[in-house]
What we know:
The protein is α/β, with parallel strands linked by helices. It has 2 domains: 25-53 and 346-444, Aspartate Aminotransferase, domain 1 (Alpha-Beta Complex), CATH 3.90.1150.10; 71-344, Type I PLP-dependent aspartate aminotransferase-like (Major domain) (Aspartate Aminotransferase, domain 2, 3-Layer(aba) Sandwich). Helix content is 37%, strand content 15%. It has 16 helices and 15 strands. The chain has helices at 25-30, 56-59, 68-80, 92-104, 118-135, 156-161, 165-168, 187-190, 206-214, 240-251, 272-276, 303-309, 329-344, 347-363, 394-407, 428-444, and strands at residues 37-39, 42-44, 50-53, 109-115, 143-147, 178-181, 219-224, 254-258, 282-285, 297-302, 371-377, 380-385, 409-410, 412-414, 417-420. The chain has a 7-stranded mixed β-sheet with strand order 4-10-9-8-7-5-6, sandwiched between helices. The chain has a 4-stranded mixed β-sheet with strand order 1-2-3-13. The chain has a 4-stranded antiparallel β-sheet with strand order 11-12-15-14, covered by helices on one side. α4 packs across α13. It is globular. The structure holds pyridoxal-5'-phosphate. Residues 59, 117-119, 122, 151-153, 225, 229-230, 258, 260-261, 286, 297 line the site of pyridoxal-5'-phosphate.
Amino acid sequence: MTSTAAPHADMPNDLDSFWMPFTANRAFKKNPRMISRAKDMHYYAPDGRAILDGTAGLWCANAGHNRPKIVAAIQAQAAELDFAPTFQFGHPKVFQLASRVAALAPDGLDQVFFANSGSEAVDSALKIALAYHNVRGDGQRTRLIGRERGYHGVGFGGISVGGMSPNRKFFGALLAGVDHLPHTYNREHQAFTKGEPAWGAHLADELERIVALHDASTIAAIIVEPMAGSTGVLPPPVGYLQRLRAICDKYGLLLIFDEVITGFGRLGAAFASERFGVTPDMICFAKGITSGSVPMGGVVVRKSIYDAFMKGPEHGIEFFHGYTYSGHPLAAAAGLATLDLYAEEGLFARAKSLEPFWAEAVHSLKGLPNVLDIRTIGLVAAIDLASKPDAVGKRAYDALNHAFFESGLMVRTAGDSLVLTPPLVISEAQIGEVVEKTARAINAVA
Ligand SMILES: Cc1ncc(COP(=O)(O)O)c(C=O)c1O
């Protein structure tokens, strides 16, 4: 902005100033995919054209868009209490929401630490792990173990334990003392699987190798997504998470599940840990907690971890970490209304009961041009397309554009995979529409 005149609300809509995150800025600004309104299962372009939301925004609008109950809760909260600090003060709704989230989490995970995003949730969990060992007099446990192809947001902690090279390679040496498990995908053994692949549990034993290399006494925690999402949907092999849990127990390592996208019904249960029958020591959440309506994230923590911090003089702060907006009143109000809606409409159970229909429908795309693999689990699907020679990611990007502009469908891409994660309120007819529009896009980029 070079002009000294005050900017006006009626300025022409110049797309230049906004540096868009995780976006091909130049391509977008030539041909913007603009969204100006949403309702239930649909987005609307400024010209009124409806776009079916095949991605719940960014894996977050699990209840669909602009639900009146959530809108009303946010409006009422803004009028009643816009902001109150949660450092040394509190407001009622944040305590209510913590109890509600703890009640949804597996037994033993009773304490909730709030943040504003998945990235902050992850960094909070990693810091809790390090500090936990420290307050117990086990402060040499400083190593953090992530996994190849993992995504844990964009903070320095998250990219350090994450396993996506474009997110890491520009940012220096990252956190010291981090190691990675191998990822769990193998097309030869797993192609076209519905749900958890049978092959791959043995990959958890790589944690034994890492422990042997570094010694358990130096390792604080392991963090994994129970189902890796951002690198193209990699459901855990049958028995894999159980094996990780057993190895963590054997060596006293904390197990953190990053459930930023799997939390709040995506896999047909409140958390993926419930679906897979494995209880970690901490769960990171975000996105679905408010159905995307107000930013919020957090960590559900085992009570014994919290208890370890509760010592020293009572006036003393026990954990030196938090965000100005941890448990913001608008987010807390939105979260409570969202959890009410999930319960009233039975949306987690709905996702579970729709899973076989969803899987059947999406797997019908097998055989279309360039389709190399399809994976489905819960209300999630990834369709791997063959990359164009010398233009990795282009085929999926062209399919995304085709779906948006020609068919009115929002899809996501991960490399040359198309990823579908619709709101949990989707109907069977709309699942049919998602699949039909995806097929058109795949054919268009053949
Ligand atoms: C598993 C996982 N962790 C963390 C994040 C980061 O969340 P945010 O973008 O809210 O920081 C994401 C975002 O997609 C995610 O999928």
